[in-house]
Specification:
The protein contains two helices and six strands. It has a four-stranded antiparallel β-sheet with strand order 1-2-5-6. A two-stranded antiparallel ribbon has the order 3-4. The longest helix has 10 residues. The protein is globular, with a radius of gyration of 14 Å. About 15% of the residues have low confidence.
Length: about 100
């Protein structure tokens, strides 16, 4: 990915160790996919976009935190809406990153 001036976009590395993830299953009508949800608390700027898009799953005070589950589509939308890309969704079975 490149910036419009030809400079490469460099994203900071985040700690994605397994201990930092919380596993949960989105709403049952989405096939029961199990997700690992990681919120990088140092990257989170507490804008609240995630809680606005999926209030049943996220709450924000000083940082965002997971409080429940939501349909997969809303979880993905919430992760993609995060301006600091602090939310990462991983398929728990395949290890594939789903969002952002």
């Amino acid at each position: 990915m490149e910036h419009k001036f030809g400079q490469p976009l460099i994203r900071p590395l985040r700690d994605l160790s397994p201990a930092a993830y919380r596993r949960f299953t989105p709403a049952a009508h989405h096939g029961g996919m199990k997700l690992k949800v990681h919120i990088d608390r140092e990257a989170c700027l507490a804008y609240g976009d995630c809680a606005e898009l999926a209030p049943e799953a996220f709450e924000v005070d000083d940082t965002a935190h997971l409080v429940g589950s939501a349909p997969l589509r809303r979880m993905v939308d919430a992760a993609r809406a995060c301006p600091s890309e602090a939310i990462t969704l991983i398929d728990a079975e395949s290890g594939e990153q789903i969002a952002p």
